Amino acid sequence: MRKYSAVLFDFFDTLVMFDPSLLPEVRIDGEVRNSTAQHVFTQMRSSLEGMEFSDFYMPFVESYTELLELRKKDLREYPNRKRFEIFLEKTGIKGDHDLPDRFVHSHMESLCGAAVYPKHHTEVLFYLREKGCRLSLVSNFDHAPAVRKLLGRFGITDFFENIVISEEVGWRKPHRKIFELALAELDESPQNAIFIGDNLEADIVGSSRLGIDSVWVKKKEQATQAEPDFIIEDLIELRDII
Asked: If both were cysteines, with which of 40, 97, 193, 234 could 6 make a disulfide (CB 3.0 to 4.6 Å apart)?
């Protein structure tokens, strides 16, 4: 068992789980899906210029897909507002400067409703703190207020000495800069740190490139050549590593 002075956590599906089944169901072409789309459509209907849901759904999905492609180019982060700017451009809907932000608020409200926090994760955080570890959160997410809201809702904000969110720093994992920023804020070296995440490419490849030991929280098989230092299925197993 090695001693680490800094423990860095991914957020979604590592520390806080995302359960798509908690999102509203929508029926598209006879197929039922879980999505924030119905919630956003209902809340924002007065701004949609008479658009029906059948015309709303595809631009809603396509705007997300286009945002993903933008991010892939250089691992720069774009705020969630950018997605809805794309959506409004696609649909030709006109509105004031704040309209994209109102879409963001509605979307995030629904998305946060699907966040689930396993209570025993708090036991793990207490354990790590008692071991003298400094905790950091490093998250790929395009709306930092949502992450901070969930940390507060689940009562775990104060466990983390620093919180690094891609929307605030402009870079996404696996880009080295987001990891470097997290370590710099802690004044820690990669050799004294360990990163815990569920995404092999973003979390494990990204941290390993800097010489940070890595723990993969295995939820499902992923096609990648990443080689985590440790593999677990539940955070409680960190007690056997740290």
From this structure: 193
Strand partners, 223: none
Hey, what are 66's tokens?
A: 């286009």
Q: Identify which of 75, 69, 72 has the alpha carbon closest to the alpha carbon of residue 177.
A: 75
User: Could you count the other beta carbons within 10 Å of the beta carbon of residue 184?
Assistant: 12
Q: What pLDDT band is residue 178 in, cutting at 50, 70 and 90?
A: very high
- DSSP sequence for 171-223: B-TTSHHHHHHHHHHHT--GGGEEEEES-IIIIIIHHHTTT-EEEEE-SS---
Q: Which two tokens stand for residue 174?
A: 């696996």
Average pLDDT over residues 27-43: 92
Three-state DSSP class for 115? strand
Task: Name the DSSP letter for residue 224.
Answer: S
Question: How far from 174 is each of 12, 104, 236, CA to CA, in Å?
Answer: 15, 25, 25
What digits encode the pLDDT tens for the residues 87-107?
999 999 998 999 999 999 999
Residues in the chain: 242
Take residue 163 and report the two structure tokens written for it: 């919180």
Rounded Cα distance, 150 and 127, in Å: 21
AA letter at 123: E
**Cβ(33)–Cβ(215) under 8 Å?**
no
